[in-house]
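Aim 2 progress update. The chain analyzed this quarter is reproduced below.
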Amino acid sequence: MATGLLFSGQGAQRVGMGRSLYDNSASARALYDEANAVLGYDFKKICFEGPEEELTQTRVCQPALYVAGLAAAKILEERGKLTECKAALGLSLGELTALAAAGVFDFATGLRLVAARGELMQKACEATQGGMAALIGGDRALAEALAKECDIDLANLNCPGQIVVSGEADKVTKAAGLAKERGFKMAVPLKVAGAYHSRLMASASAAYAGVLKDAVFKEPRLTVYTNVTGAAVRAPEEIKAALVKQIVSPVLWEDCQRAAQGQGILEFYECGPGAVLAGFAKRIDKALVIKQAAEWADF
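Predicted structure tokens:
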């Protein structure tokens, strides 16, 4: 049976992530040790011991999720679980992890690109007053109308009944207050550092184009779907353009998941902490089977 890999985005991190993989797998240990050397700070300690406030910083948690996801994928490969793997999908930051898993760039190159992305997005957060909220129970048309009314942006179309909006904090608060009146069951403010996937990230997007310009990309050996359109991308320059645009564009996760399903893939491994993507999959199509690959016990 054809299988796929799923890699989560910011928000899935937790203190202790990857520790059991590091303790039990030589391959995972090598990745974490290399990450420490590449990043130039005690990355492992923050992942394994915290504090949570430091791990949740954009500049740290993005590399943390990247390394954890690839460590899990490496163990799956060693266990012979990926012989029928056809696709790799990642939500937001996870798209870079998916590209690494598909061989577009090597581990260290990807880690540097992820670290740069995290730094630029953190700077954009610090320079703006942004916020995000999840709209529950409505559809895309309702979300688009509310976002337009409040002058904010759609950030994530995760699954049926869950759409995230992003923008200036006071405008997001206004939208959350209007949500029920506009046809949603509820709105949930998100604990985030800023307005990801919105116009407030424009400075990060522009700077990231410069970061990617000279990076060496190859065509993926697995099908990778971009969050920007939900469609497959193959050409290196097309992949770079999508990564730049993704920072300020809505994440079309449901479209990505359905596109992979259209490829005939019904079984996926969610690589990395949490089960966020498994939760989305249940609401997208109950026929989808998501297996967790986060801790040593999962293997």
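The first strand starts at residue 3 and ends at 7. The chain has 13 helices and ten strands. These observations will guide the mutagenesis experiments scheduled for the next reporting period.
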